[in-house]
Write the structure tokens for this entry.
Amino acid sequence: MKALFHRMVQAMGVEGLTIPTTLVKFYKKGEEIPQEVLEYHTDHITLTSCQTTKQASLGDAICLTRQNIGCVAAAISLGLVDQNDQKPFEGPRVYTEIMREHTDNQAKFTPPTPHDFTEGVVYSCKDAGRPEFGLFGKEDVGRYKEVAIAKNAVAEMIAIQPAVMEAVFFYSPEFEELELIPDVIICSIRPVELTRIIQAYQYNTGKRIEASMGGLRAVNSDLIARPYLTQKINISPYCLGARLIAQFEANRLGIGIPYAAFEEIVQGMEDSKTGFPFHLYPGAAE
């Protein structure tokens, strides 16, 4: 995978070009997980899928399970928990701890369950009369105006359900401890790089990319679960959690690519490099 990724970057023809990239590998329940992967399971801290994706692109491999994932919504999207489970996750989690911090009576705070997310209660906390599920204090109007709207929006957020996954491994193309074929590749790119990647994909296939995106669950649903389940490329401008919790940069957006499509992009990038002089695109070399 390292060689394949470097072939793509090299074919873009800009010296020193950096494309933060994360590889995602799923392990289903009952499937043997390599010890080299389990070594990257963090027992002492939890991380959201957005944080994990960002850190993996910087070289920090991380294995997420139900025990250490920091976002209930991501656990649903990635198939680590049943979307209708009515029990809160055990222990503190990054996303729900933000709620606790903005709750008047933190001692009595009960985190939302996966069912609360699925039913739209969390994302429409004001309409649901559940201000403790807000992220920004008493004035937080939620992510959707009404519970019914939120529930419909959640239904459109593709998820790996039923929950068949045991672990999800996030790592960079430079990871060399184990030779793995990723299920999904996430590239954090600027619009100018998106242009060239689409051109490379189309060169040998002629296929258009149809993006499906929303304002929430951008990384776990739009960039991981959707490409995994549909085997089609998807694009997202990132979401609230990705921007505020994982701190994805203002000039970056995400593209989630199934492995087979990534191979097509790399080949197309090499085959079309004289027809698309990327190094001449304004800002390409910045």
Q: What stands out?
A: The chain has a mean pLDDT of 96. The first strand starts at residue 21 and ends at 28. Residues 84-155 form one domain.
